[in-house]
Prior knowledge:
alpha+beta, elongated, Nucleotidyltransferase, domain 5, 44% helix, 4 domains, 12 helices, 5-stranded mixed beta sheet, Substrate Binding Domain Of DNAk, Chain A, domain 1, 420 residues, Actin, Chain A, domain 4, 4-stranded antiparallel beta sheet
Amino acid sequence: xxxxxxxxxxxxxxxIMDWITGEFKKEHGVDLTKDKMAMQRIKEAAExxxxxxxxxxxxxxxxxxxxxxxxxxxxLDMELTRAKFDSLTEDLVKATQGPMQQALKDAGLSYNDxxxxxxxxxxxxIPAVYESVKRITGKDPYKGINPDECVALxxxxxxxxxxxxxxxxxxxxVTPLSLGIETLGGVCTKLIDRNTTIPTSKSQIFSTAADNxxxxxxxxxxxxxxxxxDNKTLGRFELVGIAPAPRGVPQIEVTFDIDAxxxxxVKACDKATGKSQSIxxxxxxxxxxxxxxxxxxxxxxxxxEDKKRRAVVxxxxxxxxxxxxxxxxxxxxxxxxxxxxKTQVTEATxxxxxxxxxxxxxxDVKAVVEKLTKVTDPIFTKFYQQNxxxxxxAAKQAGIxxxxxxxxxxxxxxxxxxxx
Length: 420
């Protein structure tokens, strides 16, 4: 689904009203926009002219006694042609094309996949709108349903489906915005994408961000932005009782369930202990068209900025994992390393941690990683040559190969992210 809640029949009426008042002022020098009663009459006349122009090529606009000038009554008498109306509203008609293209893009379809085009709403009777849809889709819009009754009919049918009274029809509802949780670095990790048909369920494995972490905070989010702070908070809960273990070891399964009524249930379960916690959210679908439209437009507006911020966060997370893996390797194999090498690696990881905290760009993070690996690579290469079997196993366990951490690779063996 897609739409533009800021575009409707009133916008077409407003263009006619502006034209009427502009022409009257040009001819008589009187500004009717300051007269509330006159503007109400003009609004009604504009709407009538719009409706008339759906069936005829000219509309007569006649409003006697629209104003008084020096005690003399003034009359408004104009003629609006369909061609002029189309000229006044050309940009509004073009604005209807974006949501059509967005809906198809979200559905992964092309115009050739469309079986039937149904027009909804009285303004779809405007010939220019009809022709625009026909030109873009390559199909004549279906005329078998009254555009004014479409929404009510659809709501009635969906009500029957949900009540179990309609058995031979399937209507698919969708999630208006993406759902996910906050993960390391303030990132919003999406589990259910926008426009996913409901009911639906999705699970993903996460892990801990620190050693011996016994609890995780599950921050449930709704929105299209890449960071938690830019999305809407639906709820929070804490999963406690996780068995103490090194970071990245615990496996925490987070499951999102959405039923046919749009009610969201989120559950987090520690796979080792079986302990779980959950939350039910009933207000996730209480969104106005304005809310949905604003969220999608914000995501598009800040897409490039979010992408850059996300790249820095991902790079930092991967660099931190590399530092952790190197420290783990040294702590588990310190007795087999030469003392000078051990000291050099320890100092390098300490310096990398400090520099990483100051890094502001992806290039800064890459420089930290390169500086660290410049120290560790020769030492680990020498260690491998001296202890091939032990080194291979240790490297595998620690995951010290820097290439494993470039471009968002996942060194945790099936874990999709870390929860703080």
